[in-house]
Every structure is written in C-alpha cells, then in structure tokens.
Amino acid sequence: MAGAVALTGVAALVVAAVPAGAVPAGPPVGPGEVVPGERTATPALVEGIREKADGTGSAADAARGHLAAGEGRYHIGDPQRDLRPVGTAGTGGREIVRLQQKHRGVDVLGGQYVVRMERKGGDRVVTGTSGKYFTGLTAGVEPGVDEALAVERAVDATTDRLLGKRLPRADAQPLTGKDRGLVVIPRGAGVLTRHVTVRGTHPVTGEPVLHEVYVDAQAGYPVLQYSGIKTFRTAAAGGAARRAAEEPGVKGSGVKKSGAKESGVKGSGVKYDGKTVELPVAYEESRTAYVLRDHTRMAGSSKNTLSTWDARGKDVSDVSGTWPYDIQEFGSPTPAFGPEATEAGAVDAHWAAGQVYDYYRQRHGRDSLDGRGMAVNSLVGVTQFGQPYINAFWDGTKMVYGAGDAEYRTLSAGLDVVGHEMTHGVVEHSANLVYAGQSGALNEAIADYFGNAVETDTYGIPTDSPDSGLLGESLCRNKPPRACATRDLNDGRTTSKSFLGVSFATDNGGVHLNSTIFSGALWDLREDLGNTLADRIVYKALTEYLTPLDGFTEGRAAVLAAARALNATGPQLRAAERAFSAHGIVPGWELATGVDSDQLLGRLNTDGVKTGAGGGWWAASKSNDDGTEPYSVWAGRADGTGAQKLMSPNDGRFHVHPATDGKTVVWLSYNRRSVDILARPIAGGPVKKLWSGRRGAVDLRVEGDVVVFESHPRPGRQLVRYLRLSDPTVVDVHDEHGLRTGYPSISHGRIAYGTIRGTGSARTYGVEVYDVQTGKRTEMGQLGTPAGIGQTAINGTHVYWLAPTDAESGFTALRRADLDGTRVTDLSPGGGPEALRGSDLVATDEAATVTAWTPATDFRNETLSKLWQFPADGKQRDRVSCNRGEQTWAAAPGGRQVVWLDGTTGYTDLVTRTRPAGRCD
Fold first, then answer.
1. Among 421, 544, 703, 768, which one carries the catalytic annotation?
2. What is the mean pLDDT of residues 713-719?
3. Are 419 and 434 spatial neighbours (Cβ–Cβ below 8 Å)?
4. Distance from the Cα of residue 285 to its chain's centroid
5. How far is CA 87 from CA 100, 303, 431, 472, in A?
6. Average pLDDT of span 409-428
7. 155-174 pLDDT per residue, tens
8. How far is CA 226 from CA 141, 155, 674, 751, in A?
9. What percent of the chain is predicted at pLDDT more than 70?
10. What is the Cα Rg of the chain in Å?
11. Alpha-helical segments (H) within 466-611
12. Looking at residues 248-268, what average pLDDT do you find?
C-alpha cells in the first residue's frame, strides 16, 4: 500500500481499479454535468441536476434510493447494503447526506459519497452528488492476522518511526495499541487491514502520541501510519497532541457540572492585548466562585455550554486522549476575572471561543462544532515536563492551550489560533479530511482560512491589508507581528515552486508545510470576492462537497462547484479559477516539479521502506499502482543500464528493507506468523530463508557470505547478529550480559556497531568493530563523554559513526576513527552553525554520506531531511542533491554515487547522483 510521500497524501495511496468491463461514467441520463472519478466507475461530481427523490422517508433512505435508481450513472449496485449513513446536515430545506462505503460489511477508508437535496413540504429534489465510491473492490474480508499480532506490530512500527536512529529516554514508557476493527484500504482490489490506534508518550521528546496504523490483515505488515495529532504549529515548533478517546460525560452534553446557577451572569476579564471584554460566566455555589461557563449561546438549542478549564499543572500527556477529572472550570471570587486568568490565557480562550461560535452560527447557521450544539470545552495552562508548552491542539472533544513563557504568550491569546483549532472540530464533523498528506494540508488550510477570517472580521482588519494573512502574529511578547507569525496566507507559495514532498513521518506528510499553498488561494478568493461570499463558498465546499481523501485538485473542484451552486457570476467564477491557478493548483500540477537527480525506479508506492546498494547495484521495495502486488523487492544496476530484476515472489507477503552487495539481495518478509530474512542471488536462483522471528529485524546488511542485522527479541532489547548464507546459524557479535548492541554496518569482513551499557542516567555509549574471521573486538576511542550513539558505517580504512552531543537537541557529530580505534576526529561538528541532526549514515572507501536535517523552529525546505557527503579526507562537505523534497534512506553503490528515496515530485521515487551537487542556494 501506498506512497510515503505526499503528492495527494493518503489519496495517492488508496486508488481502486475500475472492474473488468466497466468504463468511467459517461454523461448522465437527463441534464447535468458529470466529472468522472479516477479509477472508479462512480462519478466524482454530478451537478446541475434536479431529479425527484422519495419525500416520505428519511433523507438517508431518499439519497440511497436516488443512487439505486441511477445505477447506470453511479454504478453502485446496492446502496442500501453498501452505503451506511454518516449524517445529514443542512438548513433552509437543504439536506446534505453523507454515506460511508462498506465492502462486504467492512468500512472503506475514505470511501464517502455525498448526496445534496432540497426539500419542500413532502417533496424532495436531488441537486447533485460528489465524493469517492470505489467500484473495483473484490478483496475478501476474513482476516488472517489476529488482533494481538496487529496491535504488536502497530506499536513496534510506531515506536520505530518515532525513534528513527535515536535512543529512547531513560524513563520512556512503552506505547500501547487498541484494535479498532477491520478497514478496507481502497487500493486495487482492496487491502483488508486492522486499524490500530497507538497512544502514549513519545519515547524521545515526551510529547503525546496518537498514531493511526493500518496493518495488513493477511500478512501483518503496517501498510499505512500517520499521526492523528492536530496542532496549530508543527512539532518542530513546540510539541503536539491530538485526538482523545470519547470519555464519558465529555462528548455531546459536555462535562457534568453541579451546584451552579443555570442563568447567565455577565462577567469580565482583561485579554492579553489589555482590552477589557465581557465574559458570560456562572456562579458555582459549591465553590462560592464564579466560573468561566457560558450558558447563553446554546440556551435555545442543546442547552450545552462553552466552558474554559484550569489545567495549570497538568502535563500535556495528561490531557491528550483522556479527560483529567480533577480539573475545574477557571474560577474567580468575583465576576471580574483578574490577572491570574489573563496570564493563564483563560480570558482570551473563553472570549475567543464565543467569537468563533458566533461566527459559525451567524454567518453559516451552524450550531457549535458538530452543527448540533455540542459542548465547547477549552483547557488552558498545560505544560510539558514542567516547562511551557508553546502549542495548541484540538483532540476530538476539546481545545487544549499550552502555557506561555518569556517569549510567547499562551496560544489562546490569538483569536486566529482559537478559530483554527475550533475549525478542526468543524472539519471533523463535516468532510473529516484525513490528517495526512494533501488531505491533511487541506484540513490545515481550511482551519487557517476560517481562523483568520474570524480574526480579521472581529478586529475589522481589511482583507487586502499586507498583514491580513498573518497567523499567530499576536503571540510574541517582544517581536513585531510579521516576525512573530507562524504562517502567512499571503506568502505567495505555489505547487510548482513551493510544494514540499515529505514522508508521513515528517509533519504527517506536509500538513503544515504545504497548507499555505491552498489557504493562500482561498485568501486570494476572499480578497477578490469579498468576505461574505468567499466564506459562504468555502464553507459550502467543506460541508457539502469535500470528502475525507480529497487533495488540492479535488479541493479546487469543490470550491468552484460550491461557487456555481451559490450562483456566482461569470467574473466571480473566473476570479476563483485565477486564485487557484495563481497558486499552481491546476489538474496535473504534479508534473511541473523539477529535480537534479536521475530516476532509477519511479512511484514506489511504499511507506517507510529502506533501500540498499552495493557493488554497483541498488535494491528497493515497490508496489504496483493497481495494488495487485504487495511490496516486492526489485534490483537494478546503479548506472541505470540493463533490465530491473524482481527478486522476491509475489506471494501475498510484504517484502521490505532490502540490502545488497551487488551479488546477493537480502530482505525482510512479513507474514501472519513471523518476519523472515530471505536472500536470493542477483544472477538468479531460489529464494532462501535465513532467519525467522516474531518481532522482526532492522538494518540488514550483506557482504559476500555474511548477513548482518539488528534483532529486537523484546521491547527495549537490541542485539547485533550475523549469519552466513552458507550456514544460517545466528551469532551475536557480543555475549556480555545486559549489553545492548545496534546500528550495524559491514565492510571488508568487519562489523561496526554501537554499544549501550547500563540503564537510566548511568548508561554509557561506545563503538566497536568485530572481525568476523578472527572474532577480535576493537573498541573505538571517543572525544569526551558521548551523550548517545547513532548509526555506524565502515570501509577498508575507517569507522564512522553519528555521535549525539546532548540528550535533547538532536545535534550529532560525524565522528571518524582508524580501524584500530585511534586518531578519532569529527568531520562534522556536534554544535555551532555547521552542526547537523544526523539520522542515518553510509560509507564507501571514497566518502561518507549523512542523512540529516538542520535545526530550526519550524519546517521549511532547508530544514527537511537532506543528504550531505564528506570525502574520505574530511576536508569539505557537499549537498548530494539540491532537490526540494525530503531525501531519505540513502545507500551507496560505490565511489561517491548515492541512491535514495526522494519526495520532490510528490511521489516516492528512487533516484541517484554519481557526484555531489555541492552548494545549494
């Protein structure tokens, strides 16, 4: 399943083939226009129709009846069986019905179809439909993998992704997983998966973790994973947290409150900007205090409240994924809330939540975030490890705002931030855009648009003001707005010049990195069409047209369709088209990105899978576009000549993480019982099983007859082991009790690896070399006291390794020693302006290549994972490639040539350069 890099995000990964004999939907019967779906017979959009529907039953039944009657247009065989109602929304006689696709009773990821109707009296008329219904699904739905194995592999995969090559904190607690049931990923005939939600605390940073992992239900391989955390700022800018479980008493009716006067009381408070504002509050008799609880806004509907809670002293991990029942609504002895409430961000959060509620109610007729009057709860003052948490997030039931510090105010001080987070709730209860890749960037873009719309309208900021597009500009205590802002909707970014292709491990596939491309187009639309019309168009597109897997191109189509439905004039429609075109959002925009590398294997459609190289050959995993072949291992010559060779069988297993020395390819094979190490000669011959384990292995290397790997027999245990192709008896490189060994490399019959002795704060780190022929171990010298250990690399004369310089920053030195452990030196410093955050390392006799990113307070192209090469003499360093996207999993076929996985085009491509590009301006 699916590409690691985010061209259309998850949408690029989940495409279904049209079944044999089917053709894309043609013109409908009667008037109207049809936009065919991609690789499905069901149209992506039908508009301009007025067709009668059953007016006597429910809206959902009428919608499904319309689809059944139009089988020749929609190609949905049995809508009553295969479409489950998700919800019906709309006002003024309009009915928007969302229907979730099911395949043989199992939900289809992103398979959602929308039917738009008008109702007057007892009559209904269908005015249009849109969405994704995948007609090519034929997969079985009986799982071969049980819940326990799926959870174990999901937790292992999440842990591996979070760690990278880093060591966990000494006090890190294991992550936990919960099986959510079966889900079909709509790729090819369909991939049956077990959906597992993994929660806990990041083993390195301590930030909250919530990952959605989809494990192939036949082979047990995690085919898709992404973070479910929705924050205002990227993780690089200060932490993250997101989606909570549905806690009793939290969802819908809100948290139970007692002893309060239900009638509203007018209170007041001073916002961070010094302005005194009116605050709806309530008197809590049991506390003899006034609390930040607004009974007034939903008094005429659900009777729910807008409440602001005092979470000072709570760690962010305590409030993500659960409700901390020992917190109380922020209180005051009088209705006038004082400086304590101001500094905690409680005044701003409570006031701003009311402004955002009013915007959606008055401008769009929406009652709260779910449209049905759900409670609005804001928690303020959370910290992280006792330190300020400079971020904010929506977790599925509430908003959470971190405490400020000497540089930043709490994020609730930004009305645009509050609007952004609450809009995530609106998105979740409408289009529910998957928070990864392009659909995730679309999610962020819409949250930015409406958050900024609320702020500019409330404060009377003209849309054409140069600063109108700034988000988070009011959060700094000392910086001017433009220097403080987190994002700018007027930054002019386009798909052709600014789109950053990254893996789901980086910013969830670029959800923040690429959001202003789309939100910038929306903001231009607001400038051209005016606040009222533009907001109505974008809101209508969100709530009536968009579905979970839509990306930029579908987003454009939804906005234009919504504009037509609102009777926008010709000039207005052309202005909308210009806004998207100016930002490069046009059909086929992906083809405009340029690279300075040569492609060896395009569109791998794999996620988080390593590459291998050696002896002038490369090896990589690939899945074909229609999904009929799970991950398979291919090999080819690094100079691009000759035919590529399929090394693994197409047998339903997932064949991943290959390594090669130019003569043999070894790889891991996932199945429902075990993870196996397999090998096959490039010249041909049978596939040989060398090793098998329940939890698998990492960092495979092969040289001649020797295969090296790192095994994890249980969580927290690392062992570097080797075996021979001629004798698959496993040998540990070290037998010292309690010693952990990891990050292996091999060259000239010697294995280099890192060592970890002791536990907790008493851990010590080192690097050793093991001679396979003689069994001799040689310890490398060190510079000072290492703060950790990273990947090793070895050639015929030197040992290289990444040496973390402290436990927090991620800075690493590139360290080199002679094979006897002497003449230790740093080729790249562990601190200062030239320092890198190295994550991976490979070497040949001519050069060492580091995969690294540079430190920054936010993600941008210059801070993404890039490749840096150091010649053997260490006298200079060069960028391997100036490509704009993320560069990962570098491997070295020989000399100074490097192959790697590149995300610049928006797909995962295996590319190469034979020499470094040098400096990149």
1. 421
2. 80
3. no
4. 45
5. 9, 21, 11, 34
6. 96
7. 999 998 888 777 787 778 89
8. 23, 12, 24, 34
9. 92
10. 28
11. 481-484, 495-498, 507-510, 515-529, 531-544, 552-565, 570-582
12. 54
Query: How many residues are recorded in the chain?
Result: 921
Q: Catalytic: 142?
A: no
User: For residue 9, what pLDDT is reported?
Assistant: 41
Average pLDDT on 32-54 reads 91
Q: How far apart are CA 16 and CA 39, in angstroms?
A: 6
Mean pLDDT of the chain: 89
- Phi and psi dihedrals of 361, rounded to 5? -70, -45
At residue 33 the predicted structure's pLDDT band, cuts being 50, 70 and 90, is confident
DSSP 333-367: SSSB--HHHHHTTHHHHHHHHHHHHHHHHHHH---
What dihedral do alpha carbons 116, 120, 123, 128 form, nearest 10°? -20
Type of residue numbered 646:
L
pLDDT of 769-787, one tens digit each?
A: 999 999 999 999 999 988 9
> CB neighbours of 733 closer than 8 A, spacing ≥ 6?
720, 721, 722, 741, 744, 751, 753, 768, 770, 777
Per DSSP, helices labelled H in 36-188 are 59-69, 71-74, 79-82, 147-163
Straight-line distance from the first to the last Cα atom of the chain, in angstroms, rounded to the nearest whole number: 36
- Specify whether 420 is catalytic: no
Neighbours of 179 (CB within 10 A): 16
Dihedral sign of CA atoms 111, 43, 576, 529 in order: negative
Residues 6+ apart with CB under 8 A from 123: 52, 55
CA 891, CA 710: separation in Å to the nearest integer? 18
Q: How many CB atoms lie within 10 A of CB 569?
A: 11
Residue 442 identity (one-letter amino acid): L
Residue with tokens 């928007």: 96
Which tens digit of pLDDT belongs to each residue from 199-230? 988 888 888 888 999 999 999 999 999 888 78
Q: Let me know: does 353 contact 422? Beta carbons within 8 Å.
A: yes
| DSSP class of 311 | -
Cα gap 226→320, rounded to integer Å: 17
C-alpha triplet 765, 770, 774: angle, nearest 5°? 150
Whether residue 13 is predicted with pLDDT greater than 70 in this model: the reply is: no
CA–CA gap between residue 797 and residue 846 (Å, rounded) = 10
Letter for the amino acid at 533? L
Q: Is the pLDDT of residue 71 over 80?
A: yes
pLDDT value, residue 625 = 66
Helix, strand or coil for residue 498?
Answer: helix
C-alpha to C-alpha distance for 273 and 293, rounded to whole angstroms: 22
Residue 527: helix, strand or coil by DSSP?
Answer: helix
Element (H, E) at 456: helix 437-459
Encode pLDDT of 855-867 as tens digits: 555 567 777 899 9
pTM given for the model: 0.86
Give the Cβ contact number of residue 760 at 10 Å.
8
Q: Which of 195, 364, 512, 583 is catalytic?
A: 512
Measure the CA–CA gap between 876 and 828, rounded to whole angstroms: 9
Q: How would residue 51 be classed by pLDDT, with cut points 50, 70 and 90? A: very high
Residue from 18, 115, 21 nearest 70 by CA: 115
Is residue 418 within a helix (H) or strand (E), and if so which, with residue range?
A: helix 415-428
> Picking from 585-599, 668-682, 791-805, which range would have the lowest pLDDT averaged per residue?
585-599
- Report yes or no: 320 and 210 within 8 Å, Cβ to Cβ: yes
Give the integer Cα–Cα distance in Å for 423 and 417: 10
What beta strand segments (E) does 54-122 contain?
83-89, 94-103, 106-120
What is the per-residue pLDDT for 234? 65
- Kindly state the helix (H) or strand (E) to which residue 446 belongs, with its residue range: helix 437-459
Sign of CA dihedral 331, 335, 340, 344: positive
Q: Is the separation of the CB atoms in 91 and 103 below 8 Å?
A: no
Contact 158, 132 (CB under 8 A): no
Q: What percent of the chain clears pLDDT 90, i.e. is strictly above it?
A: 71
- Res 247 pLDDT > 80: no
